[in-house]
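Blackboard transcription, Thursday session:
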Amino acid sequence: MTTIEIRAVHQRFETFEALKGIDLTLDEKRIGIVGSNGSGKSTFARLLNGLLIPTSGQVLVDGLDTAKSGKAVRRKVGFVFQNPDNQIVFPIVEEDVAFGLKGLKLPAAQRGALVEEVLDRYGLGPFRSHPSHTLSGGQKQLLALAGVLITRPDCVVFDEPTTLLDLRNARRVAKVIDEMEETVIVVTHDLPLLESFDRVIVFDQGRVIADDAPNSALARYVERMQ
Ligand SMILES: Nc1ncnc2c1ncn2[C@@H]1O[C@H](COP(=O)(O)OP(=O)(O)OP(=O)(O)O)[C@@H](O)[C@H]1O
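(Written on the board underneath:)
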């Protein structure tokens, strides 16, 4: 299980301070991140696998500093973007899934078996030879997730995984997240998604204002929004 330590992290974009001193240790299996628009959630999420390096402070993943060991950190922590179109790079579904294995120098048969396994896991098998852009929004989100999971990260960070999806696809993705064996950290406005989580952290104007079990943290968030 992955432990992520966030120590005295500040994030500035020119003169604007998006995160104003964050200290957290993340070691639960399922962690939700909520907060109003612009409160710093996506910025925080991007720090967790070194997509963004803090202006000051440190992010350590199992002791590895994201500023110094980005590549090793990204092998442990995968990231699924809100818009799967940002993540799907190959024209054909199975090629896109296989992309994550590039550089691992696996024999072709083993690579094929791994691709098959993740396609099956997400019901994408029948679409393996289809053009990626013809998948539905929900299927694209699952394809993006498949492309991350094939690299076998210990932890997956999701940035608003259900926001662009209709109710049926949102439920499907939520079920997949619920059943994941990997550690998950989910940024979302979809509060019911977090009810069964271990911990929910509430951001407001670049600070953590609540960090608790889902019921208490979400109640605090709803109260703050009134
Ligand atoms: N690259 C950047 N350059 C300048 N400002 C940025 C950059 N990235 C984020 N910000 C600013 O930092 C603040 C926090 O943005 P962030 O995307 O983390 O918010 P959020 O909580 O994820 O919001 P939302 O719920 O709307 O997605 C915003 O005011 C945003 O404009």
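Lecturer's comment: The CA atoms of residues 108 and 114 lie 10 Å apart.
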